[in-house]
Amino acid sequence: MKKRMLLLMIGVMLSVTVAMAQNVPAGVVMAFRMGSSVELGKYLSGDVELVILNRTSNSNKATAESAMNTFFAQNEVSNFIVNHQGRKGESGFVIGTLNTLTGSYRVNCFLKKIRNEYLIHQIRIDKTNE
Questions:
Q1: With 70 as the cut, is the pLDDT of residue 12 above it?
Q2: Rounded Cα distance, 22 and 101, in Å
Q3: What is the mean pLDDT of the chain?
Q4: Are 75 and 62 in contact, with CB atoms under 8 Å apart?
Q5: Which of 17, 22, 24, 118 has the least CB density, counted as fewest CB within 10 Å?
Q6: Dihedral angle at the C-alpha atoms of 43, 62, 96, 121, nearest 10 degrees?
Q7: According to the CATH classification, is domain 22-127 in 3.10.450.50?
Q8: What pTM was estimated for this model as a whole?
């Protein structure tokens, strides 16, 4: 009886932990894997800080989507590997490696909760030394 109760408590605690550590929207990861600025645009907030290869700009949603379209057009995506991701409170993040035909890039994408959904407010893309 004690064993069952202990297993039940462990199961409940694990379920709560998994629920609390929800990841960022799966669509963000899929957009990077597909190299799709249109899909990524669905998750952009009204104002986005873009840092692409050390060029910083504060853009509205349409301009940010256009800039990402240009980046994806110049760097055909072959894969996106998530290295870390998480969500805590009103913010979330995904850090990954974007593999393209022109090389590998480290992507840092930061989200914040706006009207009950997590939207991207910053994207940083840097060339890796691999």
A1: no
A2: 32
A3: 87
A4: no
A5: 17
A6: -70
A7: yes
A8: 0.80
